[in-house]
Design goal:
heterodimer, A: 114 residues, mainly beta, 52% strand, disordered N terminus, B: 118 residues, 4-stranded antiparallel beta sheet
Chain lengths: 114, 118
């Protein structure tokens, strides 16, 4: 996985633009991935998940894309709003019946300008 | 949806004292709970994995005698920061894994506890 404990990369966008946040993972056995949103001073909140037998999943204004070939995950947010400003993390689960690898990637700080 | 409650949400203590943080799963049984710490503008760092009825598994570099974890029931895990010092000031977050039923394996996070050691 990505290094933890490093300062967060930042993505700045204008309100109404689409945002794309990326995440790389290292374990090819991972079969389930989740995106979390963390607002300042709060715990992470579940946004969307995807299983490894899929390459795309859509939610309300959010889409997750999975590229298992290069072990890459992305979160797309359509028509980004100021309320989307937060830090976004991806997490992964290894293997059927396995527990989550509950270690998080670096995360990305999304800043939405009105 | 499932709720995980942390208490206290914030605490200020004097250096040398011990602080206990509770993590409760309110509407499901959590066979596994995880404890993280997070410094400002940094990622969540896993400290330990806590399984009900057994000793916690600590990540490399985390002092088990400094951060005591108890998971005595399926709905409660506690983290005690012993002899706290200013460098222990951080945001501590727990998560609980649903142990049974259709939602087994799902992970839910508490709202975090901010510790400030003077």
């Amino acid at each position: 996985g990505e290094s933890v404990g490093l300062h967060l990369p930042t993505l700045s966008v204008q309100e109404g633009d689409n945002s794309i946040i990326n995440c790389a993972y290292s374990n090819s056995a991972s079969d389930y991935f989740i995106w979390y949103k963390q607002e300042s001073g709060k715990g992470p909140q579940f946004i969307i998940d995807i299983r490894s037998n899929m390459d795309k999943r859509q939610g309300q204004r959010v889409t997750v894309l999975l590229n298992k070939t290069v072990k890459h995950l992305s979160l797309q947010i359509a028509a980004t709003q100021p309320g989307d400003s937060a830090v976004y993390f991806c997490a992964e689960k290894i293997g059927p019946g396995g527990s989550y690898i509950p270690t998080f990637g670096r995360g990305t700080s999304l800043i939405v300008h009105p | 949806g499932a709720v995980v409650s942390q208490h206290p949400s914030w605490v200020i203590c004097k250096s040398g004292t011990s602080v206990k943080i509770e993590c409760r799963s309110l509407d499901f049984q959590a066979t596994t709970m995880f404890w993280y710490r997070q410094f400002p503008k940094q990622s969540l760092m896993l400290m330990a994995t806590s399984n009900e009825g057994s000793k916690a598994t600590y990540e490399q570099g985390v002092e088990k005698d400094k951060f005591l974890i108890n998971h005595a029931s399926l709905t409660l895990s506690t983290l005690t920061v012993t002899s706290a010092h200013p460098e222990d000031s951080s945001f501590y977050i727990c998560s609980a894994q649903n142990g049974q039923g259709p939602g087994a394996g799902e992970l839910f996070f508490g709202e975090g506890s901010r510790l400030t050691v003077l």
